[in-house]
Automatic annotation (TrEMBL):
One Pfam family per UniProt: Hist_deacetyl
Name of the protein this chain belongs to: Acetoin utilization protein
All copies of domain Histone deacetylase, residue ranges: 20-305
Family affiliation: Belongs to the histone deacetylase family.
Coiled coil: none
Residues annotated as transmembrane: none
InterPro entries to which the protein is assigned, alphabetical: HDACs, His_deacetylse_dom, His_deacetylse_dom_sf, Ureohydrolase_dom_sf
CDD domains the UniProt entry points to: HDAC_classII_2
GO terms assigned for molecular function: histone deacetylase activity
Organism: Pannonibacter phragmitetus
One annotated GO biological process: epigenetic regulation of gene expression
Amino acid sequence: MSTLLISHPCFLDHLTPIGHPERPDRLRAIDRVLEHERFQALERETAAMGTVEAIARAHPMAHVDRLYKAAPEEGLVRLDADTTLSPGSWEAALRGAGAACQAVDEVVTRKVSNAFVASRPPGHHAEHERAMGFCLFNNAAIAARHAQAVHGIGRVAIVDFDVHHGNGTQDIFWADPSVMYCSTHQMPLYPGSGAASERGEADTIVNVPLSAGDDGAIFREAVETGILPRLEAFKPELIIISAGFDAHARDPLGGLNLVEADFGWITRVLMDVADQHAGGRVVSLLEGGYDLEGLARSTAAHVMTLMTG
Ligand SMILES: [Zn+2]
């Protein structure tokens, strides 16, 4: 079987202010590297429009309505210091959620072995009722709930190696024992949450904070000791990766020192867990990554590893 890549041109139409790190060029850099002939074997699909029904499994309708009404017809609207809406943002957000569900559909029905969604804006900072930190809808959360509601999947694990803590995903699944959320991230750093003591009401939140300057060896040990035993015990039936590449040493927003080989490594490790418990089912969703070269190289290592099935 093969690896699926889902994207859509509308993801370039979510605009942010000049100088903002979360910019359309991020996806252009990814598109360019994945055009290379070594990625020829990828199955490619364009992102479907997400449904309000799917989004409403992770966010209240009031949040969906608020974003819809706030989207401008021209110019930019600021939701907070970092998060903006442009005329193209609504469609990008809807298709980002749609692509995440589409990836779940294709992986769960065995059309492909695994899938990577190259979309923006990212999602893991979007809380149940609040857009923040460049994020509008929490795509990983929407995908997890979609897998459960539509495909009858029981236990879903979301593993997040973005340099920032996924406060939004943690918020949405804080009291949900059917979804395990595991995160490595730099602390202290935006958004401030993610201490190891934050464990959720059912002890299914697993936070493994790292310190500025930590490298791949420390990262790998943290994953092996802090996350893998918890995943093994949880036995997820589907693994969703919040694939942020801003823990790369080149990244301007993070202070960790990972290199692309580290992203290939964790991808392989998560695929092994999925092979053991989840029939190999892995859905990966792009989150952060703000140095274009580091982002492109890391995404290439990640997708190349997914393609080893
Ligand atoms: Zn990030």
